[in-house]
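Batch manifest, entry 17 of 40.
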Amino acid sequence: MAGLPRRQRVGAYAVIVRHDHILLTRLAPHITRGELWTLPGGGLDHGEDPRDAVLREIREETGLEAQVGETARVYSAHLPATWRDGRRVDAHALRIVYDGWVAPDAPEPQVLEVGGSTVAAAWHPVAGVMDGSVPVAALVREALADHRPFRRQRVAAYALCVRGSGDAAEVLLTRISALGAHAGSWTLPGGGIDHGEPPRSAVLREVREETGLECEVGELLDVHDVHFDGVAPTGRFEDYHGLHLVFAATVSGGEPRVAEVDGTTAEAAWVPVIAVADGSCEVLDVVRHALAVAGEG
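Output type: structure tokens
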């Protein structure tokens, strides 16, 4: 309709997925007559950075502290004859949508702002959103259809240290703390290679931090890898690919003890190889793989 007042609005929103649920906010009755859920977010204040705006809106609408990625998608909706603030306007909405996440131990969402455009916040099954069971704004399905887990590839170096032989053989392992992925499981001492760090230097550093022992790094036994989707310790849903360089190594300096404080290692110990083989010790696949390659499995 020609002659209607033009109104353009720029908003910032986030797709926050945890396992098979998505965080949504319910629009207030003065915005929509029936029940309607949308992504947490809202309009940018004049001069406000979009990333700052979406974090502010998430806090106000859900009570949660969130993080968002570096990149975003932009969606455009032109509504040439719609009602805004009690009058008919030619509206143009630009929505900047980020990948977002909250901590795994975050409390249940609750609305903090009073008298705003949001009256409820909750986690909803993604399947219910996509099949229409949950009434959502068009932006939600559009953004979900484009959403992909954050792709993360990590290169790490590990040490396979075995002492003794036969039924008396033991392997040096570390137990993952609550700060790491697969908390409670045992793995080889080692970890991520810092930028520019030689892999063997990474092994020496990680073994020292995680077991308190000095080691001598030998030959590269094999390269192991894992690929899976899941929620990272940060709360971000990731498409994760881990590359593990496994080196033969020997250690000296006494019994293992964790040297680093508040890290991803809770315990270090010599574990009977037979306990790994019979499954009585819960280990990551890289441990079994390394033992098999070295002929210790």
